[in-house]
Every structure is written in structure tokens, then in C-alpha cells.
Amino acid sequence: METINFILNGKEVTITVDDSEILLHTLRERLNIKSVKEGCSIGECGTCTVLIDDEPHYSCLTLSSKVNGRDIKTVEYLGKSGKLHPLQEAFIKSGAVQCGYCTPGMLLSAYSLLLKNRKPDWEEIKEAISGNLCRCTGYHQIVEAIKDAADIIDTPTHEQQKKSPISMEKRKKEEVFTILTSTKEARVYAGGTDILVNKRKGEKFRPFIDITNIQEFSGISEFNGTIHIGATSTHSQLTENIIIRGKALSLSLACKMIGAPQIRNMGTIGGNIVNASPAADTIPPLLIHDAICILESKKGVRREPLATFIIAPYKTSIREDEILTGVDIKGLEGYREGYRRVTKRATWAIARMSVAWAIQEDNGLFKDVKLAIGSCTPMPFRPKEAETFLRDKTKGDETIRAAVNMMIQEIRRISGKRPSFIYKVPVLEGLLNAILRG
Amino acid sequence: MPAVKEIDRIDALEKVLGATLYAGDMYIEGMLYGVIVRSTRPHATISKINIKEAQYLEGVVKILSCNDIPGKKEFGIIKKDQSLLAEKKVRYVGEPVLVVVAETERLARKAAELIQIEYDDIISIHDPFTSEKAPVLIHGSGNLLSHRTVLKGDVQKGFRQSDVIVEHTYRTTWLDHAFLETEAGIGYMDNTGKLVILTSTQNVHYKRKEISRILGLPEENIRVIQATTGGGFGGKLDMTVECYVALAVYHTKKPVMIRFTREESFLSDTKRHPLYIEYKTGARRDGKIQAVEVNIIGDTGPYISYGETVCLRAAIHATGPYEVPNVHVDSRMFYTNNPISGAMRGFGVPQIAFAHESQMDEIAYALKLDPLHVRMINGLKKGSRTATSQILEASAGYIETLKRLEPYWQGRKKLKGRGFGLGSMFYGIGNTGITNPSYAHLSIAENGKIALHTGVCEIGQGSDTVLLQILCESLGVDDKNVELIRGDTDTSKDAGSTSASRQTYISGMAIYNASIKMREFLDKEEYYKGRGLKDIFLTYKEKGVPVFEGFFDPPTTALDPETSEGKPYATYAFATHMTEVEVDEITGYTKVLKVYAAHDVGKAINVRNIKGQVYGGIAMGIGFALMEEFRPGETHSLDAYYIPTSMDMPDVEVFIIEDEEPTGPFGAKGVGEPALIPQAASIVNAIKDAVDVRPFELPCHIERLKGLIESKTSK
Q1: What does each C-alpha distance from B704 to B624, B644, B647, B701 come to in angstroms?
Q2: Are domains B149-175+271-432+562-714 and B437-552 of this chain identical in fold?
Q3: Cβ contact (<8 Å) for A103 and B178?
Q4: What is the pLDDT of residues A393-414, one digit of tens each?
Q5: B228 interaction partners in chain A (CB closer than 8 Å)
């Protein structure tokens, strides 16, 4: 049990919540905010969307304790009868509402977009609402409505981003290590996008320790060519960060493609690493940047290369008393970098396979080639043999074909025969060919 | 006829404010929660049920079994073949066995988990092809649910006259409605002793009948009210929570809520029927179709639901919107122990459209003719004879849908990796060859407004708004002077289900007919000369305000049991979609770039609503064509069942064609299902145009398409 304070639609709320209570239930069942809907409870529909500090989040995957000191908005904030927000007016006029179940969440995602981008184009709007499913409208009239509303809203109004007036003391990291060692089976919680889904799917309850409020675990900085990424950096932060975009573009691109906008606002790089899914999007880019995991405990700091930190699918060498507090990566300059993932749906889908690359070329020669492949082996991996082979080779069909073959052989060696390879091998051949060609 | 004045959706304001309460949002002081305990076996007899641990959990109020059902124990929308709670036997994974009622939802779920049911497994049948000859009978009487035939002319003669014959097999799989609001309902006893159920549904009057049977209570003692419904698409036609809520209220005398989690919804929701379609088409050199022979095999699951309806509707629509002189269609539905399949937007027609449209293109390819031209010369028009030998007397705008798209089709520019495809359809509005009436009545309410009472359920598609528009237009009154009282068995007569794209046409006409009577009355009372409605109300207050009833039942005939000859529907909607796709040959990923959609709706009552239906239908069609696939035992939630996001939607242009239907309100027909039906077909044809491979199985997701591309290159 914990007593928390937060701003809900402009008013301060104080409430005592259970350690495992999710924001969706606090809002619906205890604060009677029924506009926040329950559609799936695993972050796959968007009907429970709320704004936390004006950014869309799934309240079904947010622990209530996490919103302590923060600003929460639901659709009630937007307007009242007789005094609608231009978005609400436009939704009515455009026919953007059918069954209405997605509408509150959809409006919140749109509202958040317009705070950041006053004149979004059609594609930007589609992207902004891509974490809110609608089964009725085909989205067309929703996008139209948002576009119309954006045209009306000319001058910044009361919607100017307001920082939460409740000032919260940041937690000390030592405190967390103490709780971690004294709580049996404790589980570190940051974004919640994996562990709360697993809990829903029947995983045994373990007490959560929230680390999002610890300054030392956040932030992105660069020193002497090494970029330090705090473990609680969200995918959204990594997408936008200027250092990452400049010197680790593949990571920024990968983060941009993860899940949906809400997931990117919630999920952290630390969580993505420790969850250690074979399909994790950040891992291939981190591998080509020679990421070193920083693991801290009461006993001190341990540094381990990401390549050895993950030991099996969903399994790492992290100890029960340790927290992954960040990663150090090497910034790359003068490389052509990229990230590609293959999915069944345009977005908001698990990667069927993925490739990150950083390639340095000079005058028709491969100088340095770094590749990392996801979802084809138990853990994403670097085809080192092929990388070495390509060094200083002339860029040509023969060389590329030989390198691709080496990589496929290596994958077959690691994974053995797999039914999924009927699909994956030809796709990977095609992707690697295209990537190396550039 | 002139355009009908358009109004904003009447429910939109409340919805954008977030103020709309759906059934699962409701709360009544002291209410209990019910959770259904379901079978974990596909086919078994129940040998033992142990509820001890659950029973004694504090806060558990009741655990109900089949022995607690006071009335009839079976239910079913077409036939009563499904046990409300399994007695001895279960026939699919997810079949309800018990209902736990407890003080909180969490407690009810916990108790449900503590219940142990032991089973003796029976051999289960999962393949409709082996079902017929299987040694095990799912019900007493054979595993063939239904066999329907459509016969016209002489197909053998037709094939002999043909210069080209195209023959292929097409397959589709289970789809889930995936409405965003899962099934939910709440019930209570009102102060007159009436049992009231508020529920997310597409048909209140049917639900009342079912509850009345199960409880053995007269219908007058039961009131079913439609709660705001967060999408239906056919999945809220069958009984979902209603009888369980009613049973729990009956036994506890307290308010009870049941709402399904997404996982429960996936487990229990009826699915789109997977169909296996063998299709043979013969055509002359000039492209004229001479004969069509079709063999449809369907998997209906263990209970009927709408299985017979889908079996017949797929057969009747098998030839598509084309006039075919010689037709032989066999359509069979088999029982299996797979999930129950039922109604889903289009009742089998989206599946069969995938087949007939693929065939039309194949004929065009074989004869080196333009696919649009082949459609044009075979298309149904006024005076055509359909496969059931019905003469189309009016409102047959199919050719017009082609003409509207022709400039875009002729002007298409094919870029590498891209392709264009056409998909056409026709769709009979209303139920098939049976009576399906709607009633409505009008009166003046005390507040001085004209009250429209209708049993029509608004499920998000916009019927509330459209019906009010029809009322306003036919009465010549402003929408400020009318109010809608709908979806409540106590205040309205049966309007039939919100399904088969029938409400605008049928209930719209019932309202129109009521309006004609009321208009005469209002004229006599000098309303049109400026007299107020309140004043008229006061004149009649003592002796009773007159009620004007309207009724409409589309003129259809029963079909011949052998040949299906007859008039299954009074009118048909027609549509063509033209789709451009881009296929990534490396990954097999198809991106839908652009859709031009032309629909003959008879008469547009509300253009925004029609477009909303078309955009939504296109989205669902993209899901059907490219990604949606329910896998029994593997699909538990939306993380394993992808439906299109905003990023999957193409740019869309909608063209509305108005070939007025004389029997419809202002000439209107329907568009709800037609919006979806041609979309998957047009995508498949566009894929063929883009990468020269033809998908025969849906969804044509990345792996399936890559496989086709690979086998093409290795040839």
C-alpha cells in the first residue's frame, strides 16, 4: 500500500493504492472515470489511453504508484457540453465517431499530437493514432477530424503544456538496492510493457520495485565517443535524442518502430534488454554499437558486454540483487546506418525478423561492416565471420553473395533446422543483399 | 427523389465527452459479478465437478449449474440446440459449464479458478472433410448440418459451350469480430418485480424470448434494454451474457453484472465460418460466362448459430453480381468440435466474393480481356435473371459502379512491384427467403416532441441517426421536434435484428409507413399551419394520444428446396472496389495504397455514415485479406490477432451511386456489409497484378505470399 498524489484533469487527488494496482482500475473503479475503457488489458487496443504529463500511455500497463506526482488527463479534461474542444467538435462533424468505444483514447492521442505539432500532415496524424485501434471507422474520418481541428486551432491556448505542480523528491538509488535485497522475489518495474503483460498471462505475482523515479538511471550523455544511456530512457526519448540520432541512428530507428506510440512512451531500453526477447528491437542496434551493460547492486558495479549478457531467450546473467542501470555504446561516425524489421502489420507488431546495420565504405570498398540479426537465432547476433570477410573487399555481387551465404550458414549452424526458416531464410537473403548493396 | 436532410450523429456528442456508459461501465449499489466457468476440452463428458473450495470462499454467493435452470435448458438463435450450461457433454473448448456469482469480479474469477472439472474425453472432430464419415456424432443426427443447392439451366451444357474453363479451390479461415467493447450486461429486478437486463446487443427482442424460455417466465416479466453497444459486426446477435445474467439475478434477487475479458471474448465469440470453395467457371471467347459450378464446404463448429444461414447465403451469392445462365452450387456445413462459427458481417458472402472475383480475373487473363470489361458484359442489371431465377425489377446499379471506376481503371499506371485489382459484389438486403418484418410506432410525447419508438439496435453503424432522418423527412418536421425511444422491449415492438444490412431499408420503411399515417393526422390537426405539438398533445391528453404504427416486411418468397428458385431478397446492394497495392517481394508484405469504392446504396440518407461504413468495411477487408487469422488454442487476445491500425489504411475515395429502390425509404437500401465484401477480393486481384502470383488462401499474410513468390521464381 502506498499513498500517492497526482493531478487528475487539473485537480489534485490523494489516494492509497495497492502495490500491484494498475492505473486503469484506480481510475475506473475507484475514481469513477468511466471514459477510460478496458478493451484487452495487455496494451493491444488503446481504449484505456490516458495522458501522463501530456503523453499518451496505456493505463492498463501502468502501475498506479508510478503516477505519483504526475499530471493525468482523461477525455473529461478536453471539454464540456456547450464548450467542446475543437477536436471534439471536429469528431462530431467528420463522422469520426461510430460505436464510440475507442473515441476517448483516440481524442487523447490526437490532443497530445496537437500539443507537439500544430500542423500535422495526414501521415503524422495516422502515426499519432496508430496505438489506438478502431474497428468501425477505418480511421479515415478520424484523421480528417484531427486535420480539421488542427486548422482551427491557430493560437496556443490553455492547452500549453503545463508541468505538474506537485514537486516530487527523486528517489535515491541506494534506497532501491536496499528494497531489492530485502524483498523476496522482487521485480524491477520501469515501463511495465512486458512484465504487466506477463502478469496478466498468469505469471506469479512478484512485488514490483519502481525505478523510473531515480535520476541516476535516466538520461543520455556522451563522453569521449562513448554514449551512456540510462536504463529508464524510453523508446520515445531514444527516437528523438540528438546524440542517438547522430551517432547511433539504427537505435533511434529501431526505437521508432517499436510497438505503438503509447508503448514507446512507456517502454524502456533497460526493460527491452533484460526481457531479452529474440525479437527485441533495441538489441540488434545495441550489438553493432558494442553495447556494455552496466549492472549495479549493493556490492558494486559490474560491466558486461551485451553479447554475453543475454544467455538464452528471455534469460540474462543478471543476478537477483542487481539492476541494469544503463548501457554504454560506441558512437559511430562516417557509417551508413539503418534498421529494418519485418512484420505482419504496418506497425504495432512483433518483429518477425530484424536487421541492424552500420556500414563504412570507401571508394567501392567495404571498410567496416557491422550487422546484427534478430529473430533468426535464439538471441540476436553479430555474424562476425562475414563481417571479417567483408573487410576491405570490393563491393560487388560476388562478394555480397558470398557474405550473405556465410551469414545464412552461420544461422543454420546456430539454430539447426527450423520450420520458420522456409520463410526466414529467403527473406533474410533478400534483406541482407539489399542492405549490403545500399 | 430529393436528398434527405443530413444531421450530425445523435450519439456523437455524448461519446466525444466520454460520458457514454456502456454496460460494463454501469454500477448498481450492491451488485454482484458473474463469471462463466468454461470447458477446457473440445469433446468430452463431464465426470465430476468439484466446487467445494470455491463455494466456501468468502464473498462467493452462488455457483449455478444446469440444474439451476428453471425453464428450458437450451437456446439458439435459429434452432435451440445449445445447452445454456453443459449438462453431461461439452462440445468445444470454451463451452459454459457453471456460473460463479460473487461480491466482486476479482473474487468471482478467483473462485472460478478453484473449480475443478473432470472430463472423459471423446474423440474430437476438427476437420469438416472428415466430419461426415467420422465414427463420432457430435449430435444425435449425423455431422452434416445443412446441404443447400442452387440450380439453374444445365451446367454441363454451359461448359460444353465454353471456350475457356477456369477451376480453382479457395480457402478462408476463422475471423473474430474484435469489437472493441467486449460482451457485457447487467441485470436487476425493478420495483414491479420485472427482471431487467441492459446488454450490449444487436437484437433486444430475441434476447427477451431466450431469457423467457430459460427462466420459464412470461415475456411480459422480462425487459431487455440495449446498452450503448461498442460494435457488433454479427457477434452480438447470438446470446452472449444475457441468459447468464438473468439466471444469476433470478437466483440471487440482486443486481448482477457479467462482462467478458478480451480472452473470454476470443474464446466464446462466434467466428466467421472458414469456407473451402471449389469453383469452376466456363466462358465464351468474348468473355460471356456460360456456366458456374461451385462446391462449398463449411465448418460450423458444434452448434448451429447461423450455420444454415451462412450455408444458404454463400450458395445464393456464389455467382456474384453476374448473370450466369447455367449454375450448379452445392453448399454444405459440417459440425466439428472447433469454435462455433456464426454471423459475421456478410454471412459467408465475403468468402465467396474472394472466390468469384478471383475467377472473373482468371477468365479475363485466360482470354486476354480487360477484367473490367468481362465484369461489365456479365454484370447484373435491371431485367437480369439471378442464379435463383429472380428477375431484378429495379435498383440494380452494378454496371454504374463499374462505369464510375472505369476512368481510374483505364488511367491506372503500373509501377514496379505495384498492381491494381477489382472486386465486385452484390448482396441481398435482409434475411434470406423468410419473413423479416419490422415495426415502429409514433406518437406525441408530453414534452411536445414526436416520439419514435423502435426496437432497432444501434451498434455504432448509425441507425439511430438515419432512422430519425427518415422520420423527419417523411413527416416534414425538424429534428429538434423528434425524440428517439429505442432498443427497449418495454417501449417498442420487434424491429428484428441489426444484421443483414437491413435496418435502413426495413425499419426505415416501417418508420416511413408510420409517418404517412401520422402526417395525415398532423395535417388534420393543422400542425403544418403552425399549430404546436404540445397543443395537439393537450387536446388528446384525456382521451389518449393516438399512436401510429408502421410495418414493413420486404416482399420475398420461400426458396425451392431443391433448386433454391425464388425471390430470396426484395432488393440487392451492388459495389465495386478498385485497389492498388505494393508488394515487397523480399518480405511478402503487401501495402494497400489506394482504394476507389463505388456503392449502389439506392439512396444516400446520410453520406457521412455511408462513407464511414465504407472506410470501416475497407479496413475490415484489409484485415481479412492480409492479417486476420483466429487459431483455436493459440489466439487468446489481440496480441495474437492483428486487426488493421491507422497505418494499414490506404487513401480512399468513395463514390455513391443512387439507383433508387422503389420499396425502400426514399429509395434507400443498405451498405453495412457491402462495404466489406469486395475488399479482400480486390486486394487479391491486385497482388496477382503486382507480382504475378495468385493467393488461393486467406489471409495472404507475409509468409503465405512469400511462399507463393518463392515457388514462382523456382519454377
Answers
A1: 14, 18, 21, 5
A2: yes
A3: no
A4: 999 999 999 999 999 999 999 9
A5: 100
